[in-house]
């Protein structure tokens, strides 16, 4: 699957990125786990549909009653149509320079979260709905003062969210300022019990699959495929032993595309079938 460089793919015929940029994104087909290299921090104001995103060490799913502020970096995006026949999302990008300018103008010099979270979930309200309606790429592309207006719109939503969420949002904004990449082991171990494939975890580590495998073997002294399979099967066994779930409930969550493959792998490792554990 090719990597989408966003927002570069939306800036046709432009040599340089703008500091603030709005794009109206629409689609009519579901897109599952597309690889995205996000080069700017971004608000995702979802208006119709559902969205799930995986970052290096976490994931989040939202519907159109919520918005997301996403940290720049490598993401896996899943965008799903709802009952409608179209998916519609307003994307509002801003550079780190504009973020730093805003923080120095309006906030204190605070320490960010000890644990960096790459997203902030925003609960939509009437004010945010009105703000979203005021954003349109056509408005700002045809306006003589579009750049100045966009700066005001950026400060408007930032100030509103600072007022709405207080210190929590202020600390989050400071955590967006670049301080390096998440450690390799944190990324791997945060996705042990996900259903992500090796290639997808490698992407979240910003590595090719071959580089990821070499780095993994160096860190863990074991091939990543076997290591992940063992961890996931052990988790599956624990879930089955708890007695509330069956194999058919969990095989997808532990990285298997079908029940049969899961059952074979489980029996090869433990010598008994999943049904024997849960019965």
Supply the key terms.
five-stranded antiparallel beta sheet, 23% strand, 279 residues, alpha+beta, 10 strands
Descriptive report:
With 279 residues, the chain is α+β, with helices and mostly antiparallel strands. Helix content is 43%, strand content 23%. It is built from 12 helices and 10 strands. It has helices at 96-106, 126-134, 137-141, 146-165, 167-175, 184-190, 198-204, 209-220, 224-241, 247-250, 259-270, 274-278, and strands at 3-6, 20-27, 31-38, 41-48, 50-54, 59-62, 66-70, 73-80, 87-94, 119-123. Strands 1-3-8-5-6 form a 5-stranded mixed sheet, covered by helices on one side. A 5-stranded antiparallel sheet has the order 2-9-4-7-10. β5 and β6 form a beta hairpin. α7 (198-204) packs across α8 (209-220). The longest helix is centred in the middle third of the chain and has 20 residues, at 146-165. The radius of gyration is 21 Å and the shape is elongated.
Q: Work out the helix count.
A: 12
Mean pLDDT: 84
Order of helices and strands: EEEEEEEEEHEHHHHHHHHHHH
Q: Gap between N and C termini, in Å? A: 40 Å
Shape: elongated
Q: Determine the structural class based on helices, strands and strand pairing.
A: alpha+beta
Enumerate the strands of the largest sheet in spatial order, edge to edge or round the barrel. 1-3-8-5-6
Instruction: Write down how many β-strands occur, each being a DSSP E stretch of 2 or more residues.
Output: 10
Helix residue percentage:
40-55%
Q: What proportion of the residues form beta strands (DSSP E)?
A: 15-25%
Q: Could you tell me the radius of gyration in angstroms? A: 21 Å
Low-confidence sequence ranges: none
Outline the biggest β-sheet: 5 strands, mixed
């Amino acid at each position: 699957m090719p990597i989408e460089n966003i927002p570069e793919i939306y800036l046709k015929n432009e040599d340089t990125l703008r500091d603030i940029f709005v794009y109206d994104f629409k689609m009519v087909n579901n897109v599952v786990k597309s690889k995205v290299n996000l080069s700017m921090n971004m608000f995702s104001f979802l208006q119709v549909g559902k969205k799930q995103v995986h970052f290096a060490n976490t994931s989040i799913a939202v519907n159109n009653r919520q918005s997301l502020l996403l940290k720049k970096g490598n993401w896996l995006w899943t965008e799903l149509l709802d009952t409608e026949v179209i998916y519609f999302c307003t994307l509002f990008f801003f550079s780190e320079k504009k973020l730093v300018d805003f923080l120095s103008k309006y906030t204190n010099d605070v320490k960010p979260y000890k644990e960096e979270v790459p997203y902030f979930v925003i609960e939509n309200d009437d004010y945010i709905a009105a703000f979203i309606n005021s954003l349109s790429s056509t408005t700002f592309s045809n306006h003589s003062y579009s750049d100045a207006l966009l700066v005001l719109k950026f400060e408007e939503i930032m100030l509103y969210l600072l007022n709405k969420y207080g210190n929590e949002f202020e600390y989050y904004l400071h955590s967006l300022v670049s301080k390096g990449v998440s450690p390799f082991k944190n990324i791997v171990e945060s996705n042990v019990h996900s259903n992500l494939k090796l290639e997808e975890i490698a992407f979240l580590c910003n590595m090719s699959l071959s580089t990821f495998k070499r780095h993994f073997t160096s860190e863990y002294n074991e091939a990543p495929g076997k290591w992940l399979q063992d961890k996931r099967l052990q988790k599956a066994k624990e879930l089955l032993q708890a007695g509330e779930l069956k194999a058919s409930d969990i095989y997808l969550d532990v990285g298997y595309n079908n029940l049969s493959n899961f059952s074979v792998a489980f029996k090869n490792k433990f010598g008994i079938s999943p049904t024997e554990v849960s019965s």
